[in-house]
Amino acid sequence: MVAGAPYNPTRRARVGRKKRGRTVCGIAGIVDLNGRRQPPAGAVSRMAAALIHRGPDDDGDFRAEVDHIAHRRLSIVGLADGKQPISNESGTVSVIFNGELFDYVEQRAALRGLGHQFRTSTDTEIIPHLYEQYGDQFIDHVRGQFAIALYDAANRRLILARDRIGIIPLFHAVVRDGADSWLLFASEIKSILASGMVKAAPDRRGIHGVFTHFAVPGPRTCFEGISSLPPGNWLDIRLGPQAKVEPRPYWSLDFPDRGDEIDGSEEKIGREYEELLFAAVKRRLRADVPVVSYLSGGIDSSQVVAMAVKALGRSLPTFTIGVQAKGFNEEPEARIVSEHVGCEQIVVPFDGRDVMNGYPDLIRTAEMPVIDTACAAMQTLAGEVHRRGYKVALTGEGSDEFLAGYPWFKLHRAFDAFNLIPSLELPQRLRRTMLRAVGLPLYTWSEVHRNENATGGYGPWLDVYGLMSLSRLMMFSDGMRSAVGDYVAYEDLKFDTARMAKWHPFHRGMALGIRVMLPGMLLLCKGDRVAMHSSVEARYPFLDDDLLAYTCKLNPRWKLRRFHDKYLLRRVSERWLPRSIARRRKVMFRAPMDSFHSENPPAYVNQLLSAESLKKTGYFDPEAVKHWRDRLPSMMKIGYARTGVEMALVAVTATQLWHQQFIDSSIADIPTGPSAAKWPAPAHNNPNGSAAVRANGLAEHSTDARQATHE
């Protein structure tokens, strides 16, 4: 982008433009931070090609003396004139964008009233005008789900921004070439790897994070030197001899001071919440293509479907996973809802064999070890949505995090009865006694206290993450323990614990799941990544900005009343849904977790977990893995201990599989799936764990560059 030059994009070769791609919008780019030269020839083209599944309908790019930015588009809004990049009237501010701005109609009208002129009907075009109007505060006016790259040519400035909750991903890396520094960014890590400038190498602390809370919430990833931009943050990148890459938060989760929460009559609170949720659903039906909905039969997706039918004035197709295993299939409940609101129900069968057969492709899609087997089911569901010709699906994710829908909130409340003297730490002592009784390892009191100090205190999410953390105590090798040292993953989250101290303890307990579980697992492995894999955009009414602002302000009793979870939503839903659905208890949607460790697992599982492969990766103790694999069949079918062992073994298998897919293909013989050709294959017998990110002929990743990507 030449400073001050008019907007004049150079079209790239139409890689797959006329084809129906595999998975929605994607952005990518390379910037010479010192402002001296163009990126290596073909690098950005390869990055864009690696994202074709996110945008099979169109492409576009933007070049300048020192940078090159590309975009892949899935046409949903502004079908005829939404090609990106899009600029302001003078061409000095240009934007590529991934996501949806659901209030763009109102924003456009307001900007027109201030004198701005528009050339297209797409939501993207409001962004450069918001920047013109409000400067750095433009991001406060961008509402929806998004990842943005905005270039201000006059000031030689690039801004990368991500939405408040973390619905849309955005990754970046800095590499050095002598005196030059390059910043690469993309919607997916595989795009950065496809540049040829960054080589895949494991970040053991990132893997340690997976074994802490089965999620990768950022900024750290499982790849050395590649960072995820945290939700509610933007990067301010100044080009030139004094180049700077400065991370800047623009939004953070907040709750009222204890005692200042919103309260009132059930009629008033229920009406206000219902109106906000209905408006959120209605906004997410805005599209120039048909919209469908996922439907599990749980209260969240059922309420979304009921309101969507009301807003549309007609039915819409619903898609349900039919898990073929006792205790997991929610098809009957989903049928009740479909019949109640008059929608067509499309059921997609899914069983343990599908888990095993689809996991390699899931890991390639997610770019991290995936422990929740339900993610494979969601990838299959999105595939069926795409196969039937749809591009947009509503989903109910987000309600559980903001309305205390998980069973561990109730368990934590029950344990609170033992916490009359907090300094005695009786709940933690009871858990340690249980673990010791079944022969599982224990973490140190020092780590327990560091975890609590980093997250504002003991809370329900620490209970469930404590179970996950047993996996690393059980499975990590001595070398892995040495590599991660005394690292505590919670400290990467950088919570403002002084502010949190003023919240109600219940809200402090909720904050961890909102920061970790949502962006690091549900919106990544169950949301954006598996949906985009099939060119489907997922939309989340429960994560609407206005609805969340109101929900956060509510008194905790509207979220968990005694042992009734999602109390407010259930009372609202009784006016929309059959009573059996509105009052249905939370069912953890997952496929059978022990599919990998049955009597006849796939051949690749035994290869991944062989002593030879485990020694090659170096993450896990081969004897420990064998011990727990042998012991699992004799353990009780249901129980705390068995769940912990199952999670540990799935985590080990998923991590080995991630290593095979991205780092060293020699540790197992896995058939190549259709998405495997989107980025360079991992080296055969790659030396396990090169500690630095390298470029083609470029110098090793510098200390300054690591600080730019991880701090």
Observed structural traits:
711 residues; Rossmann fold; six-stranded antiparallel beta sheet; 27 helices; 19 strands; 39% helix; globular
Written account of the structure:
The protein is of the alpha+beta class. It is built from 27 helices and 19 strands. Helix 6 (266-283) packs across helix 21 and helix 10 runs parallel beside helix 19 (524-532). The longest helix is centred in the C-terminal third of the chain and has 23 residues, at 640-662. The radius of gyration is 24 Å and the shape is globular.
Provide a concise account of the structure shown:
The chain is an alpha+beta fold and 711 residues long. The chain has four domains: 26-195 and 226-251, Aminohydrolase, N-terminal nucleophile (Ntn) domain (Glutamine Phosphoribosylpyrophosphate, subunit 1, domain 1, 4-Layer Sandwich), CATH 3.60.20.10; 266-397 and 523-582, HUPs (Rossmann fold, 3-Layer(aba) Sandwich); 407-460 and 483-503, no CATH class; 593-678, no CATH class. It has 27 helices and 19 strands.
Topology:
Layout: E1 26-32, H1 43-49, E2 58-63, E3 67-73, E4 86-87, E5 93-100, H2 104-113, H3 126-134, E6 145-152, E7 157-162, E8 171-177, E9 180-186, H4 189-194, H5 204-213, E10 226-228, E11 233-238, E12 244-249, H6 266-283, E13 291-294, H7 299-312, E14 318-323, H8 331-341, E15 345-350, H9 352-366, H10 374-387, E16 392-394, H11 399-402, H12 407-415, H13 426-437, H14 445-455, H15 460-475, H16 478-484, H17 497-500, H18 505-522, H19 524-532, E17 537-539, H20 545-553, E18 560-561, E19 564-565, H21 567-573, H22 579-582, H23 603-608, H24 611-617, H25 622-631, H26 640-662, H27 703-710
Parallel strand pairs: 13-14, 13-16, 14-15, 16-17
Antiparallel strand pairs: 1-3, 1-9, 2-3, 4-5, 5-6, 6-7, 7-11, 8-9, 8-10, 11-12, 18-19
Helix pairs in contact: 2-3, 5-15, 6-20, 6-21, 7-8, 9-10, 9-26, 10-19, 12-15, 15-26, 18-19
